[in-house]
Design a protein that fits this description.
Length: 607
């Protein structure tokens, strides 16, 4: 804050003197402007961008809502989540209808199957001042079913409008740590602990698509309503459906900036990585409602659902009794601490609340690839040509990921649009009021901007809205005043002409030069890329695969499908994304990574 404030004072000192400059009673050097030299409420914020360290990050460089209303604000630094909630309620008050400003969804991997309140995780959002629901997100764990207060420690994500990406924080033991922003987390070799889970730099909701295994959907989680009603700081209850929409919208916004930055950097390998490789994943279920028997295995449990676009969804047909017998035979169970949970019926829990959990391709990766198609980086045929390789392994396919080595080196992928001022200004035009003009009155008519500025400099709302207040509007990330639009990231680029054709041709050239052996993934990709209009053939091949699966004796096909699903569950459990043992069932099948189904016969293929 000190360097930032002195820079402002220096710039303003070059202008004409204001009344009161000479006696120290105004906002000139030696007067109220000196207050801006303070470090804010929380001057000591650890820098965790490269893992644990005792280095500090300058809060003046942070412009997200947590920085604006908590770290850089005037007053005492909040050292517990309850203190953070109180600080936000006081400072982040513009257009904020309490208690509806704070909404909390809870998840429990155990409460539903146990039939009683157990341990919860809470994700709270605070929506004020016209911010989207992903503006401030707060994660709290653990919360027991009888908890009467929130834990002191918490994790925070806050969306930085100036960068178009999230900032990641933890509050642990009373100490704040900044773990980087989305751009930091997606850099190769990043050491931030948050990068271990937030691989794509955005929000994570493993059980993203309705219905969910453990979020509240069409059935209530025991104790969830009472927990939120009991703790005021959790606001009002929301559900998995609400959070699902928040995650999709948030990741779409960050993806815009991420795609732009990668294109401008000319890094085609990283641009295409979400298409070729598994970066994140989601968890799906075969059930449509809690308690439903398993009558089918959805297509996305076995192939990428981009192929499942027909009027009749692809699936593996299952008789509930056959499925039940198969999981009993495999000794499937849901466990904690290595021991099977015991349900309300006194028997071991053998399945998740929504049955048949499986690992599927991440929606965030799909969003990224869809955006590449929408802006003309690649076409749909190229995407299908790639996904058709090893298509019965939509996740964790080393074969498909290795093909990224054949990406060509192209001289230029995109150029920045020369004038983004109009697009940036339009994002803030309804918020500005007279906040971009100095005046003698206190405050400004843009209430959300006033709250943001005055949290860090209350002179602006108690005395007058002077030039320092106007400068702070942009400098502190509150909004873009005319002429300061360049501070705010705008995700607009001009993709170079014929880029999809150039990418395809570049792959073909490198693949031919490698002379891959017949039947190898590289040879298959080359054939796909050279075949005209191959979309229909890819879709037909996937349809034929499901036809072959359903033609097999039911007991055999169900057993083999479960073995494939089990192998992917085991692989998922080795990643930081699966934090809780009860998230996925375990069994005694011993299936290993690489277990899959033959794309033609649907026979089990062992690695």
């Amino acid at each position: 804050m000190r360097r930032f404030a002195l820079a402002l004072a220096g710039l303003l000192a070059c202008g004409e003197a204001e009344p009161g400059d000479d006696d120290g009673g105004g906002r000139g050097i030696g007067g109220k402007a000196d207050d801006l030299d303070g470090d804010g409420a929380c001057p000591e914020v650890f820098d965790g961008r490269n893992g644990f360290s005792r280095n500090l990050v300058d809060p003046a460089t942070l412009r997200d809502p947590i920085a604006q209303f908590v770290l850089r604000a005037q007053g005492e630094c909040p050292r517990t989540f309850a203190a953070v909630a109180a600080a936000l309620a006081k400072r982040d008050s513009a257009e904020c209808a309490e208690p509806g400003a704070v909404q909390t969804a809870v998840i429990s991997e155990t409460s539903q199957v146990l039939g009683k309140p157990d341990v919860f995780r809470a994700i709270a959002s605070r929506t004020c001042g016209g911010r989207p629901e992903h503006g401030i997100l707060m994660s709290l764990t653990p919360l027991t079913g009888d908890a009467k207060a929130t834990p002191d420690d918490a994790e925070f994500m806050a969306f930085d409008e100036t960068l178009g990406m999230f900032a990641f924080y933890t509050l642990a033991g009373g100490q704040w740590t900044f773990h980087g922003n989305s751009g930091d987390l997606v850099k190769p070799g990043n050491g931030s602990t948050c990068a271990r889970c937030h691989v794509d730099g955005g929000m994570i909701m493993k059980e993203l698509d309705t219905p969910w295994l453990h979020w509240e959907g069409d059935s209530d989680t025991p104790g969830a309503t009472e927990l939120i009603d009991r703790i005021d700081d959790l606001g009002v209850r929301s559900t998995g459906a609400d959070l699902e929409q928040t995650v999709i919208a948030a990741n779409a916004e960050w993806t815009e900036v991420w795609v732009k930055d990668l294109l401008l950097a000319g890094d085609l390998n990283r641009v295409l990585e979400p298409l070729f490789c598994t970066k994140e994943f989601n968890i799906g279920t075969a059930a449509k409602a809690a308690g439903d028997p398993v009558r089918f295995v959805p297509a996305e449990a076995l192939v990428d659902d981009v192929f499942d676009g027909g009027a009749f969804g692809l699936q593996i047909n299952v008789t509930p009794a056959v499925y039940d017998a198969a999981i009993v035979k495999s000794k499937q169970r849901v466990q904690v601490g290595g021991k099977a949970l015991v349900g309300p019926n006194g028997k071991s829990v053998v399945d998740t609340h929504f049955k048949l959990a499986f690992v599927q391709r991440a929606r965030s990766d799909q969003q990224f690839v869809e955006r590449l198609q929408q802006i003309g980086v690649i076409d749909r045929e190229f995407a299908l040509d790639v996904l058709a390789i090893d298509f019965t392994r939509p996740v964790f396919s080393d074969q498909r990921c290795a093909l990224l080595d054949f990406a060509p080196k192209l001289p230029k992928l995109a150029s920045g649009q020369p004038d983004n001022k109009a697009a940036t200004a339009s994002r803030f035009e309804d918020l500005l009021g007279n906040c971009c003009t100095a005046h003698n009155e206190a405050g400004c008519t843009g209430s959300t901007i006033a709250a943001c500025v005055c949290a860090q400099d209350d002179f602006c709302c108690t005395e007058q809205w002077d030039e320092l207040c106007v400068a702070a509007v942009a400098d502190r990330g509150c909004a873009a005043c005319p002429g300061r639009e360049a501070m705010f990231k705008n995700p607009l680029v001009n993709v170079t002409p014929n880029l999809p054709e150039r990418i395809r041709a570049g792959f073909v050239t490198k693949l031919k030069a490698a002379a891959p052996a017949a039947g190898t993934p590289a040879a298959q990709l080359l054939a796909n890329l050279e075949a005209p209009s191959s979309q229909a053939s890819h879709t037909q091949r996937v349809t034929d695969f499901f036809t072959a699966c359903n033609a097999r004796p039911e007991a055999e096909r169900v057993a083999d499908v479960l073995r494939v699903i089990s192998a992917r569950r085991s692989q998922a459990r080795t990643t930081p994304l699966v934090e809780h043992e009860a998230s996925l069932p375990v069994d005694n099948l011993g299936a290993v990574l690489g277990t899959t189904l033959d794309p033609t016969t649907c026979a089990l293929v062992l690695p």
